[in-house]
Design a protein that fits this description.
- This protein is α/β, with parallel strands linked by helices and 467 residues long.
- The chain has two domains: 86 residues, no CATH class; 367 residues, Alkaline Phosphatase, subunit A, CATH 3.40.720.
- The strands form six sheets. Strands 6-5-7-1-8-13-4-14 form an eight-stranded mixed sheet, sandwiched between helices.
- Helix 1 packs antiparallel against helix 7.
- The longest helix has 25 residues.
Length: 467
C-alpha cells in the first residue's frame, strides 16, 4: 500500500499474520512473501536444477585451475602442479581431490568480464548488468530470482519445498531488484555443521503444535471484512496464498527431512567435511534431490581466513597462506558434491557451477597487513597478495548433461589474458538459463514501467557446456 491510510488499515491484518505464524513457527510476513514462488500459475514445473557455489571476492585462477609453472617467480606462486584424472590437465597441489575426479567436471579457463569492483563484477556475473561502475544495489534482478519467477509461472507442483533456496547465499550485491521481494530465496543461515544448527520455519515439534497453528489460522475468517476496506484486493488474496503456503512448509515432513543432515550417514558427512562449507554443499545436494530448482551457497566466513572472503589483497591476507588455509575444506566439499551428482544419478538433471566474480592478478603484489589473524601477519607485516582481475579467470562446471573431463579456453603464459575461446558474463548466464529450459534470447520480463526486458543483452549458451 502506498499511503499511510492504507498502511494503517493493514495494521490489524499484519498483526494477525505475525501472531498466527511467527509466534508458533517463527515465520514472518517477509518469510511468507519469499514463498510466492510456490503459488499456482500456468502449466507445469522444471525437471532441471542448478547448484551455484559462489566464491565471494574471487579465487586465484593461477593458484588453482590454471597454473603457470613456466612463468617467472613474480607470477607463478609457490604451489606445485599435480596431474589430474584427465590426461594433460593439471591443477595445483591445493586440489588433490578435485584432481582425482577431474574426469567428472569441466574447467572453463577463459571466463572474462569487464568490472573490477566487487559490486559491479558480481552484478555482471549474476544479473548481466554490464555497467562497470559499482552501485549500492542492483539495477537488474539476478538469474536466481528471475528463474524463480519464470519457473513458478509454469504452474503448481505437489512439492512443498520452495523452488529457490539460499544456504548462506550471495546476497550482498544481488537480489530481485524490480521483480520484488517475493522472488528472493528461502534463506538458510548459520553453520550447518554446528550441533545446535536448525532451519527455522520448517516443521513443528509436535502434533499439538501443528493443531494449535491450524486453529490460529482458522481465526483468519474474522478478518475477512478488512478486504472490503482495501482497494488492492489482489494483494490481500496473495497474502492468503502466502499464508497457506507457509502453513504447508511449516507442517511438511518432506520439507523437514530435506534439510535434515542427520539423516545422512557419518561417512557421507565426513566425506563432505565436518565444517560449514562441507555441510552447506551436502544440504544443497539433498535439496536438489528433493526437488528444489535453484540452490545457491556462498563459501565465506571463518574458513576463508581473517576477512572471511576470497579477496586476497596483501593488506587483508597473505594470499598463499590464505589459499592453503581454505584449500582442504574447499577441495573436499566441491569434490564430494560432484561425486554425488554423478553417483546418485543426478548428472543429467543437476548442474553444478563453482565461480566467483573474477580472478586475482597473476602478478603478485606486496603490501603491509592491516591486522593479524588466520592467513594474515601482524599489522604492518609485508606480505604477498593478488588483486582483482576480471580480464581472465576460471570456473568449473559439472553435471547438467554436459560432457565432462574437458578444458574450455586458455589464457596466455602468465594467465593475464584470454587467448582462446573467450566467454563473457552474458554467455555464463545464458548457459545457466538454457539448462533450466529458459531461452534467454527470447524470454523477457517486465521492468517497473512494464516494458519487456531481455534476460541477457548479448551472449549465448556456451556450446561445450550445453548437455
Amino acid at each position: 500500500m502506498t499511503t499511510s491510510r492504507h498502511a494503517d488499515r493493514l495494521g490489524p491484518r499484519r498483526a494477525f499474520l505475525q501472531f498466527g505464524l511467527s509466534t508458533v513457527g517463527g515465520l514472518s510476513l517477509p518469510g511468507m512473501l519469499r514463498l510466492r514462488a510456490e503459488s499456482p500459475r500456468g502449466r507445469g514445473g522444471s525437471p532441471k536444477s542448478v547448484i551455484m557455489v559462489w566464491q565471494p571476492g574471487g579465487c586465484s585462477h593461477v593458484d588453482t585451475y590454471d597454473p603457470k609453472p613456466e612463468a617467472t617467480v613474480d607470477y607463478r606462486g609457490p604451489f606445485q602442479t599435480i596431474a589430474t584424472k584427465v590426461p594433460g590437465l593439471r591443477f595445483t597441489e591445493l586440489l588433490p581431490r578435485q584432481a582425482a575426479i577431474a574426469d567428472r567436471l569441466t574447467v572453463l579457463r577463459s571466463m572474462s568480464q569487464t568490472a573490477g569492483g566487487h559490486p559491479a563484477g558480481s552484478m555482471q556475473m549474476l544479473s548481466g548488468d554490464m555497467d562497470t561502475q559499482d552501485k549500492p544495489k542492483p539495477r537488474l534482478p539476478d538469474w536466481m530470482c528471475v528463474s524463480n519467477r519464470l519457473l513458478s509461472e509454469r504452474g503448481p507442483r505437489a512439492n512443498p519445498l520452495p523452488r529457490y533456496v539460499g544456504i548462506n547465499p550471495p546476497l550482498g550485491y544481488n537480489g530481485p531488484a524490480y521483480l520484488g521481494d517475493a522472488w528472493r530465496p528461502f534463506v538458510v543461515a548459520g553453520d550447518p555443521s554446528a550441533p545446535s544448527f536448525t532451519v527455522p520455519n520448517l516443521g513443528l515439534g509436535s502434533a499439538a503444535e501443528e493443531d494449535r497453528l491450524r486453529r490460529r489460522i482458522g481465526i483468519r475468517g474474522q478478518f475477512d471484512s478488512l478486504e472490503r476496506t482495501i482497494g488492492r484486493r489482489l494483494e490481500m488474496e496473495a497474502l492468503d496464498a502466502f499464508e497457506a503456503q507457509a502453513l504447508e512448509l511449516l507442517t511438511s515432513r518432506e520439507a523437514r527431512h530435506a534439510f535434515d543432515l542427520t539423516r545422512e550417514d557419518d561417512a557421507t558427512r565426513d566425506r563432505y567435511g565436518r565444517n560449514a562449507w562441507g555441510q552447506q554443499l551436502l544440504m544443497a545436494r539433498r535439496l536438489v534431490e528433493a526437488g528444489v530448482d535453484i540452490v545457491t551457497t556462498e563459501l565465506s566466513g571463518p574458513l576463508c581466513g581473517r576477512t572471511g572472503v576470497w579477496d586476497d589483497h596483501a593488506v587483508d591476507h597473505h594470499v598463499f597462506e590464505a589459499l592453503r588455509f581454505r584449500a582442504a575444506a574447499y577441495d573436499n566439499a566441491v569434490a564430494a558434491l560432484i561425486e554425488d551428482i554423478h553417483d546418485r544419478g543426478l548428472a543429467d538433471r543437476v548442474l553444478v557451477v563453482v565461480t566467483g566474480e573474477f580472478g586475482r592478478t597473476p602478478k603478485i603484489s606486496y603490501g603491509p597487513s592491516t591486522g593479524a589473524g588466520n592467513a594474515s601477519g601482524p599489522a604492518g607485516t609485508i606480505q604477498p597478495g593478488r588483486d582483482h582481475w576480471p580480464q581472465a579467470f576460471s570456473n568449473i562446471w559439472a553435471g547438467g548433461g554436459i560432457e565432462p573431463g574437458r578444458v574450455i579456453g586458455a589464457t596466455d603464459k602468465r594467465g593475464e589474458q584470454v587467448v582462446e575461446r573467450r566467454c563473457t558474463a552474458q554467455d555464463f548466464l545464458a548457459t545457466i538459463y538454457h539448462h533450466l529450459g529458459i531461452d534467454a534470447a527470447r524470454v523477457t520480463i517486465p521492468d517497473l514501467s512494464g516494458r519487456p526486458t531481455a534476460l541477457v543483452d548479448h551472449g549465448r549458451p556456451i556450446a561445450e557446456l550445453v548437455g
